[in-house]
Amino acid sequence: MRNHSVVTEFILLGIPHTERMETMLFALFLSFYLFTLMGNLLILLAIVSSTRLHTPMYFFLCKLSVFDIFFPSVSSPKMLFYLSGNSRAISYAGCVSQLFFYHFLGCTECFLYTVMAYDRFVAICYPLRYTVIVSHRVCAILATGTSFFGCIQATFLTTLTFQLPYCGPNEVDYYFCDIPVMLKLACADTSTLEMVGFISVGLMPLSCFLLILTSYTRIVYSILQIRSAEGRHRAFSTCSAHLTAILLFYMPVVLIYLQPTPSPWLNATVQVLNNLVTPMLNPLIYSLRNKEVKSSLRKVLHQFGFLPEQL
Fold first, then answer.
1. CA 28 to chain centre
2. How far apart are CA 176 and CA 158, in angstroms?
3. pLDDT, tens digit, for every residue of 46-82?
4. Which of 110, 116, 28 is nearest to 67 (CA)?
5. From residue 82, how far is each of 77, 85, 87, 223 by CA, in Å?
């Protein structure tokens, strides 16, 4: 019997059509990565240090910040490592880990955005029953559920991809191990698995997006029933940050996984934006339009000596 399991490592070729741009890309991506880590850590500190922010909405935002720290950390360290002139090789186990954690964190964020939309729906449509419906116990169940179902989805996709034999070539025409590029390297017919993967990757975000759309349809209807202009403005202001973050999260997913004719360069560009820029922008989106978060951030920055006391 011929042994198909001959590939022990893969070579990451990086972003297509970016030869001789390694130094510039390294500086750019490193700055994005550092700003992402710093911004999300500040949001975490602001929420944890302020008792006023110990509410379900900020609990879910706290979890989002944690995942926005880990999500770019799946692919960015290795990418920065080889952009600085080091080896582009990644072990078979490392490739499996990259693919699993990328989809685990991505799927969990997808479910988390859905839960956050439900939280806003209850807060605006049923304000008097909000603390009863979204209790601490319910928050814990929802938060655990997002990670649990994200893990199931990621396990399914990873198993689907790496049950195939990889017997060469081992050059991954991308900057990290993802499903479309890995299937191209398999030494077997992948047409059926591509269809199953396409349905799985497409169905989950679509289901979440429809639930979010349903929540926000009800939210908009309830906001329009508010008589005072100030009340409508406050409600819209609360939801606008979440809607902006949702659009930034879902647009790259649609462009990468649901386009009929994939373009490697476009995919890589969009995925870099999804992996680095969106997690970097989320702290800005959620803090700039939120007075409570801004106030808590000022206190945190003052404690660390970054702001004078009068601010």
1. 20
2. 14
3. 888 888 888 898 899 999 999 999 999 999 999 999 9
4. 110
5. 9, 5, 6, 50
User: Can you give the pTM of this predicted structure?
Assistant: 0.88
Task: State CA 138 to chain mean position distance.
Answer: 23
Written as six digits, the tokens of 18 are 């970016």
229 pLDDT tier (thresholds 50, 70, 90): confident
Q: Which amino acid is at 55?
A: T
* Cα–Cα distance measured from residue 226 to residue 293, given in angstroms and rounded to the nearest whole number: 25
Average pLDDT value for the chain:
84
SS3 for the chain is CCCCCCCCEEEECCCCCCCCCHHHHHHHHHHHHHHHHHHHHHHHHHHHHCHHHCCHHHHHHHHHHHHHHHHHHCCHHHHHHHHCCCCCEEEHHHHHHHHHHHHHHHHHHHHHHHHHHHHHHHHHHCHHHHHHHCCHHHHHHHHHHHHHHHHHHHHHHHHHHHCCCCCCCCEECCCCCCHHHHHCCCCCCCHHHHHHHHHHHHHHHHHHHHHHHHHHHHHHHHHHCCCCHHHHHHHHHHHHHHHHHHHHHHHHHHHHHCCCCCCHHHHHHHHHHHHHHHHHHHHHHHHHCCHHHHHHHHHHHHHCCCCCCCC
What is the identity of the amino acid at 90?
A: I
- Chain centroid to Cα 30, Å, comes to 18
Given this model, what pLDDT does residue 1 score? Answer: 38
Tell me the per-residue pLDDT of 19-46, one tens digit each, with 9 for 90 and over.
888 899 999 999 999 999 998 998 898 8
Q: Is the pLDDT of residue 14 over 50?
A: yes
Q: What is the per-residue pLDDT across 98-155, written as a single tens digit (0 to 9) for each?
A: 999 999 999 999 999 999 999 989 988 898 899 999 999 999 999 999 999 999 999 9
